[in-house]
Design brief:
mainly beta, Porin, 21-stranded mixed beta sheet, about 10% helix, elongated
């Protein structure tokens, strides 16, 4: 049974922690709408256009369309809000929000255009080179939920999972609960009772703060044949930094066994990774008005390092507190992300207007986890079952209203990666911007608004809550040609 001790105790559990699962594979496989201000203002539909530094990470043939050297960079302001909450369980949340405010430099690009003499090169008239980095995704976000839950409890979930297992066979979470008297054995070493067992209502809160980003350093090459066929290749070196700190608290246990007042479970995950991929692309000018673009992205092969720890604190009557925590768990593994196929079509009207459309195909179920001493069999099976192929569609337009001023607009739809249609997490982007060019200098501005829904489980085994999210970004870019 649970003992009452009028003291503070601390337990440290040394365990090999494996927090890697299908959620990690999806997180590092997904990308969002990022790039220069001109690129995102046109919804990212640039695969058949080129002449933009961001295209190196999407269709490298865009490097071959440059006839002048160029240096450019961008500044980004990002604000994320959750404006709705819907629970499919007994969780009634009067307080919930998701926030993300961050500033960053999402890209720096340098392109060297080397136009060759026809007498020396024949029909192949250029060898262009590009180098730089582009942001591919952003992880900065803070989520908070608080409410009354009448049907679900982390304490009950822990108790049910512990039942029938000896202490040595308990998971990390269950051992933390045992060592803080949230659960305890009764009668035998495999039969348990829980401090929250008789509670029907409790206040439940969830806090999660994530930070980091996915960026790609690249080296790109391009060439052109008779100024109609443009070919390019990009060697990409993406990197990941991700930090997630989560707290789940339950309190207001009227009638709890042994006077439990509250408990808190905290986890801390730090991830860094580096990878490599190859992108191949072409742009073909069907005529002066129509251009077709095609790009193939190989899977990115990541080597990822994780550090993970967790702790639990329980608070009983008479100011009795118990704490338990784990050693820092370290684990290295590999991730292979899905390949991509991109088809693009653009219409250039009298050199004054552009209409562009792009389709991107990828299959999230093809992502694979692997490690030297762990095969990830169950995790890879879950990836294959839970995720599916999907399409991302991007549409953009540009109108030159003055020789030095252009206005732009776009729309993008990023399909949901899930096979379960009830978990539709597709994202829509609405974009707007303008650009100003004076001699060899240019300045671009873009505003991006995105909308999506997401399902959130406070912990494994809990009912999912549905969040409606919106995001606003401002991107400012500038550069010069030489």
């Amino acid at each position: 049974m649970i003992k009452r001790l009028n003291l503070v105790t601390a337990f440290i559990i040394g365990l090999t922690l494996q927090a890697q699962n299908h959620i990690d594979a999806l997180r590092y496989s997904q990308e969002s709408l990022w790039g220069s201000a001109r690129y995102v203002a046109m919804g990212g539909a640039f695969g058949a256009l080129g002449s933009n530094g961001s295209t190196a990470s999407f269709n490298p043939a865009g490097i071959a369309t440059f006839t002048n050297g160029q240096f450019s960079g961008s500044f980004n302001l990002n604000q994320f809000d959750s404006d709705g909450f819907e629970s499919t369980s007994g969780f009634n949340s009067p307080a919930s929000f998701t926030k993300r405010n961050s500033a960053s430099i999402p890209n720096l690009n340098y392109v060297s255009a080397n136009i060759l003499s026809p007498d020396e090169s024949g029909d192949w008239d250029r060898v262009n080179f590009g180098i730089g980095f582009n942001r591919l995704d952003d992880y900065n976000k803070y989520t908070y939920l608080e409410g009354t839950n009448s049907e679900n409890s982390l304490g009950t979930y822990i108790l049910n999972n512990a039942e029938g297992n000896s202490f040595d066979n308990l998971s990390t979470l269950e051992q933390l609960a045992f060592n803080t008297y949230l659960i305890d054995t009764i009668g035998s070493a495999t039969t348990y009772t829980g401090a929250t067992q008789s509670i029907t209502n409790r206040t439940q809160s969830y806090r999660s703060r994530t930070s980091g980003s996915k960026n790609e350093f690249y080296i790109s090459f391009g060439t052109a044949y008779q100024k109609k066929l443009f070919l390019g290749a990009t060697l990409g070196f993406p990197s990941i930094k991700y930090r997630e700190r989560t707290n789940i608290t339950e309190s207001n246990f009227e009638g709890a066994n042994d006077g439990l007042e509250s408990f808190n479970y905290a986890s801390d995950l730090y991830v860094e990774g580096a990878g490599i991929n190859l992108k191949l692309g072409l742009i073909y000018k069907i005529d002066d008005a129509i251009r077709y673009g095609f790009a193939l992205h190989t899977p990115t092969y990541y080597e990822i390092h994780e550090e993970y720890s967790s702790s639990m604190q329980t608070n009983f009557a008479n100011d009795t507190t118990f704490d338990a925590g784990t050693y820092l768990g370290l684990f290295d593994y590999e991730l292979s992300t899905p390949f991509k196929i991109i088809n693009s079509l653009s219409f250039v009207l009298n050199k004054r207007a552009i209409i562009s459309i792009e389709h991107e195909y990828l299959d999230y179920s093809s992502a694979q986890l692997n490690a030297e001493y762990y095969a990830f069999v169950e995790e890879n099976e879950t990836i294959d079952i839970a995720y599916s192929s999907t399409s991302n569609v991007r549409i953009g337009s540009e109108l030159r209203v003055h020789p030095q001023l252009s206005v732009r607009g776009g729309y993008a739809y990023y399909g949901s990666p899930f096979t379960n249609t009830n978990n539709d997490s597709s994202t829509e982007f609405l974009t707007f911007g303008f650009g100003l060019q004076v001699n060899q200098y240019f300045f671009d501005f873009a505003l991006i608004r995105s909308y999506n829904n997401s399902n959130l489980s406070l912990y494994s085994g809990s009912e999912e809550a549905r969040l409606s999210n919106r995001n606003e970004q401002i991107v400012i870019s500038g550069g010069f040609k030489f």
